[in-house]
Automatic annotation (TrEMBL):
<dbReference type="GO" id="GO:0004061">
    <property type="term" value="F:arylformamidase activity"/>
</dbReference>
<dbReference type="InterPro" id="IPR037175">
    <property type="entry name" value="KFase_sf"/>
</dbReference>
<dbReference type="InterPro" id="IPR007325">
    <property type="entry name" value="KFase/CYL"/>
</dbReference>
<dbReference type="GO" id="GO:0019441">
    <property type="term" value="P:L-tryptophan catabolic process to kynurenine"/>
</dbReference>
<dbReference type="Pfam" id="PF04199">
    <property type="entry name" value="Cyclase"/>
</dbReference>
<protein>
    <submittedName>
        <fullName>Putative cyclase</fullName>
    </submittedName>
</protein>
Amino acid sequence: MKIAISLAEHNYIINTEQGHSLAIPLDFLHAHNQPSHFGATPALASAMQAGDFIGDTRKGGSCNVLELSINPHCHGTHTETIAHICHTDHPLSIAVSALALPPLIPCTLITLSPITASCTQDHYRPSLEANDRVIGRRQLEQQLAPYTKHQLQALVVRTLPNNADKCHQHYNDEKQPAFFTADAVCYLNERGVEHLLLDLPSLDRANDQGLLTCHRLFWQVSAGSHQASPTSLVNKTITEMAYIDNSLSDGFYFLNLQTPAFITDAAPSRPVLYQALRVNESHGQQ
């Protein structure tokens, strides 16, 4: 099926049969195949047992019924709301279930190589260390210059090197991932990015003294506060631990961000990209 879309006086067509999932498949039965972060114990699946019933056909059950144990933040592709850093009982601290996500979101995909902190004048709290690997403001400025605000409602950032090892990478003190500088996130806010998708396990440094500087900047929550305010950007989302295959070219897409109706600050998610084919009204597709 093809869908025609009008955006900012331009027309596009997407083919719904050619979507590209950015979600990492999660293997509950083989921990070594799972990605993990922050020392989390593996995600697990076990057969439900209730009285004489067992949810495993291999053990005589009539059907398979699995109980899952998962930490969305640490076990693969997930989407976070402002509730990740704010008290969940605050009225502005919306859960995943309350997100008002359009079915198709204008989205740009870019690819960047993290740089060492010594190569940038950007800031971060706590202070950057010389060997930190970061995504900086200038990199984003250069990559996003060709795109309009309408094309940046969502942004997918693929980092290099990019290979399938990201699908089962165990991030730890010896395998410190890259993260964004404060200046970089401020620039994303200036460009109006509402939905940020990364192939990194976190927007922030893994060991950041609990400051979550970039998360706070993105949602506009004051440092040290766990309360959203009227100026907070409560409808924005951050998706982490995605995997963007090298077959996808940088450029403009439409995003379908699929999330379950969990009343939680984060949930496993399945972002799907559809290539946006520009239509020239007089000459057809470009």
